[in-house]
Design a protein that fits this description.
This protein is about 50% helix and about 15% strand. With about 400 residues, the chain is an alpha+beta fold. It has a 4-stranded mixed beta sheet with strand order 1-4-5-8.
Amino acid sequence: MDYFLTEEQQMIKEIAAQIARERIRPVRAALDENEEFPWEIMKVLAQSDLFGLYIPEKYGGFGGGIFENCLAVEELGRACIGIATTFAASGLGAYPILLYGSEELKMKYLPQIASGKKLAAFGLTESGAGSDVSGIRTTAVKDGDYYVLNGTKQWITNGGEAEIYSVLAITDPKRGARGASFFVVEKGDPGFSFGKKEKKLGIRASATRELVFTDCRIPKDRLIGREGMGFIIAMKTFDKSRPGIGALGVGLAQGALDIAVEYARQRKQFGKPIISFQAIQHKLADMATLTEAARSLVYSIARYLDTEPKDFSKLSAMAKLFPADVAMKVTTEAVQVLGGYGYMKDYPVEKMMRDAKILQIYEGTNEIQRNIIAQELNKEYGRMKESFLG
């Protein structure tokens, strides 16, 4: 199914698929085993101009939107979401600048991110603040022409590898979440260092580190937007980025389905390929249907978001929630279809199942997505005059 893609969109999908097939699949197991950052693949993605898909041409990008980015992320995720997460996380770090940065900040940083010459990262989570942004403790105190940052960020994707960081810090402790602000911090800024590289269940090719700020002085013009806008910037960034997580889930589910079907056609038991057994057929049918439903949801919502609607938090949450759950379900079933072989590292479904779990956790847990959806439903129905009860 081509989903009514334009020639340019089809080209994006094909380029990403070719890189996934020729460059990622041969090394994904080794990168996972060695927890090795995929710099060589990042260079290939940069040479293919994929980093700037969602960035306006004015800043060196392709001029596309969320949908074009999702097409690339899906195909990369079909081979390895550890590598695809590294790619997608650079976009997450870029969105605060793209959405709320001054023209000077956009001109300085977006071309570097669009070209892939420098990776970006997003610094929000702390040991006491994940889903609860009001728990942020990192501070930014104005001192003349500078801000001085102190604190620690935890579990930051691309930490230590990225050059450009969008970081949330408290500028007015008395105002709670409304006293938070975003800043651009550069690798190499005095007082900015990194903690240990985390050892993870899945997406082991991606780098996850602490960001440590010890009297880190940055110029005041690195403030994104205005003081006190941090919470709004974070939420609007997630609204834009969550369909990309959904696209990772679609790609991962499709990759697991590919392997499960191929294996079921080749594996024989009782003298027949196991795909001839109804139990296996039903599993594969459900896996394929869920994957296609997730893809349709991500595509339709991504396209809608590119029309710049006024309020889309509910749909963005759906675009992350459902594909993440589908990826977990489909990869687990793929392991079951392969049986004992699925549990071994000889086949990639073992890795895929480990990788899938993070999709239900990062960029807002799936429980938080359900909260967002329910809260928005409450508002929508509260505005309705029509009653459905009688």
